[in-house]
Amino acid sequence: MTLSYDLYWSFRSPYSYLVTPRLLALERAYDVTCTVRPVYPLAVRTPEFFEQQDPLWVRYFMVDVFREAAFLGLPFRWPRPDPVQQSPQEGYRMKQPYIHRLTHLGVAAVQRGRGLAFLNEASRVIWGGGTDNWHEGDHLARAAEGAGLDFAEMAAAVDADPATFAAVVEENQIAQRAAGHWGVPMMTFGGEPFFGQDRFDQLKWRMEQQGLKRRA
After folding, report:
1. Domain contains 123
2. In this structure, is residue 215 part of a structural domain?
């Protein structure tokens, strides 16, 4: 029996980037499928979340995310540019030229059956430290090609009807809260939420209890 789980994931979340290679490897090695459900980051959905944090939260976060990337052996650098823009006057409450389109491209990849592969390729371009100005040139197109997608076709669909893709994201965000959490990455399996990239081992453990089998 093929097991399945939902993945709530954001292009602005470094921890989403860090867990994706393990999720992709899990799907390749085991009889399990991932239903990817892209969401907008908290900075866009609820900017007040960050405005109310203790300053130590940000300091620890920056230490932890670089440490975790090193621990996992993954290249890491804060994106240039940041997928979510902010200004001294407006904070995150400003026009966002990148994150909405990125998220909609993720939805389009899911609709074409290559969601997890595209998240892996695109997040490596954005977060992996080897690409400046990831939003320009053919960087995302090559990421899409690496995931087995036609970027020109996918981007044309996203740009022609952003409201439809935004509606899918909104549905995902409603489902995410109903599943038990608001953060990313969050995996849900058997009605149980697993929030955070550090819950991957527990997710797999729970799947093993439910009969997870290696692929033939």
Report:
1. yes
2. no
Residue type, 187: M
For 102-133, write each residue's pLDDT tens digit: 999 999 999 999 999 999 999 999 999 999 99
Which residues are CB-neighbours of 161 under 8 A, at least 6 positions away? Answer: none
DSSP symbol at 81: S
User: Can you give the CATH number for the domain in which 178 is found?
Assistant: 3.40.30.10
Report the domain count for the chain.
1
* Strands (E) located in the chain: 3-9, 32-38, 186-189, 192-195
In 3-state terms, what secondary structure has residue 180? coil
d(CA 148, CA 87): 36
C-alpha separations of 48 from 52, 63, 127, 130 in Å: 6, 22, 24, 32
Domain containing residue 153: 3-209
